[in-house]
Amino acid sequence: MGWGQINYLNPLPKKSCKTACDYGKFQRYKKNARKGDLRKVAMAILIKRHTSANNIWIAERLGMGHDRSVSRLVKQGKDNETIEQQCKELEKMLQCED
Q1: Does residue 51 contact residue 6 with C-beta atoms inside 8 Å?
Q2: Environment class of residue 80 by beta-carbon count within 10 Å: exposed (0-12), middle (13-18) or buried (19+)?
Q3: How many CB atoms lie within 10 A of CB 24?
Q4: Which residue from 23, 41, 46, 79 puts its CA 20 to 30 A from 72's CA?
Q5: Does residue 2 lie in a domain region?
Q6: Measured between alpha carbons, how far is residue 95 from residues 34, 50, 70 in Å?
Q7: Is residue 20 one of the residues assigned to a domain?
Q8: Residue 93 lies in a domain
């Protein structure tokens, strides 16, 4: 499922139980991981790069604290080679088929 193929009424595809399990793992991870976790920052960078979501939405959905923290973390993350590598890996996994 790529960036443009999100079904907002039913965000999980019906065909895969594994996807539902992964979604549950993400929810637990989001709750337990630190606000500035590198993986959260990588996801925030990709969301900002590919959507028009604002910082408030990103902060709430990813559990990143205050919306101003998102701006700061994204800016710092763009200069971090580890985070940029994670962004590239996530982009490969989430490629949109146009």
Answers
A1: no
A2: middle
A3: 11
A4: 23
A5: no
A6: 27, 11, 24
A7: no
A8: yes
Tens digit of pLDDT for each residue in 48-94?
A: 988 999 999 999 888 888 989 999 999 999 999 998 998 888 888 87
Per-residue pLDDT for 24 more than 90?
no
DSSP-derived secondary structure for the chain: --GGG--SSS-S-TT-HHHHHHHHHHHHHHHHS-TT-HHHHHHHHHHHHHS---HHHHHHHHT-SSHHHHHHHHHHHHT-HHHHHHHHHHHHHT----
Question: Is the torsion defined by CA of 36, 42, 47, 49 positive or negative?
Answer: positive
Total number of domains constituting the chain: 1
Distance, CA of 63 to CA of 71 (rounded, Å) = 14
Residue 5 lies in a domain: no
